[in-house]
Amino acid sequence: MPLAVRIHPFAAAVTAATVAAVIHLRRRRSHIKAMGSTLLVLFAKSTEELKLAQSLKLKFENTNDALKVSEEEKEVKVQLGSDVGPDCQVNFGVGLYMDSLVATRFGRLLLWSPRLSSTHDLVSKNFHELPFGTVCITDIQFKGRGRSKNVWDSPLGCLLFSFTLQMEDGRKLPLLQYVISLSVTEAIKQLWQDKGLPQLDVRIKWPNDLYLEGLKVGGILCTSSYQSKFFNVSAGVGLNVDNEKPTTCLNAVLEKMRPNCSKLTREEILASFFNKFEELFDIFLNEGFNVLEDLYCKTWLHSGQKVVIEEKIDGRSIQSEVTIKGLTSSGYLLATDEQKNSYELNPDGNSFDFFKGLVRRKLE
């Protein structure tokens, strides 16, 4: 049995940044009734991945090896992209995506569905059946996981995907979500540069949110299990590309900056993400996060931010101010006070706003 492992000591709180919750649309507390048949279509970049797709289809058609899905998805119909008939409209430009993809290990086998409860659940429940680097994407997601078991909807216009990867070094595992966040912002930067579009200043809000013009437009979710000396990681990303409610989206900001300019597409962003992630992930594994930290800190919102820490000392509430300087080696916030003492800041696990529930530990 694999051992479930949390990506970070505050991973339970991080689940609030799950793909659907980040899009921040409509919270539903009532149980969702069971769906009908769920369609899952397999697409491949090359002949090698096509053979994997064909093997997966045969495997999932076997009752004993059926795809593991949520209770809302009682029946899953698996098809190859080449077998999709005219009655099925694939609302994802697979050709554009594959033509834009140059990554050699990630995103080359793609699972698309028009509607899923959660891409993250599908990937994590079937991790050992899916080839390394497989990505699952859906147009609509109706059961994203949030805090306190809240359920979230993510409608059309959002880029919603999860993918698989493995790591050996558990010390680096807490920092993976930062590499993924940085890959998203760098992918978007690469696209607006290549397409001659206005600069979209997507920023990172620690630990795993994406912001544009002061509003949340996306987020990251990483979960893992440990088995046979490897951490099996399911990584999920949600990004508001075309749906501007209730906050904003990438293309709405582009339109405001330059009316009638070309739009960013989910296909281009996803391909650009994997191209960039593969590059940054290799650097991260081989050289460590410290090589990427300067770029990360230029992209996040917190350098020089003042934070008030409230502590209980002898029954009294004492407040002190510290300044955020960067990240510690374990992935928490590094801060200093007026006396130049260094502290590691981490959330208390209870506060909805990470920066209103920080606990500090003095560093020697």
Automatic annotation (TrEMBL):
The GO cellular component terms are: cytoplasm
Organism's domain of life? Eukaryota
User: What UniProt keywords are attached to this protein's entry?
Assistant: Ligase
What are this entry's molecular-function GO terms?
biotin--[biotin carboxyl-carrier protein] ligase activity
All residue ranges annotated as the BPL/LPL catalytic domain in the record: 95-285
- InterPro entries (alphabetical): aa-tRNA-synth_II/BPL/LPL (IPR045864), Biotin_CoA_COase_ligase (IPR004408), BPL_C (IPR003142), BPL_LPL_catalytic (IPR004143)
Q: Indicate yes or no for the key word Ligase.
A: yes
The family line of this record is: Belongs to the biotin--protein ligase family.
This chain belongs to the protein called Holocarboxylase synthetase 1
Q: Which organism is it from?
A: Rhynchospora pubera
Lineage of the native species? Eukaryota, Viridiplantae, Streptophyta, Embryophyta, Tracheophyta
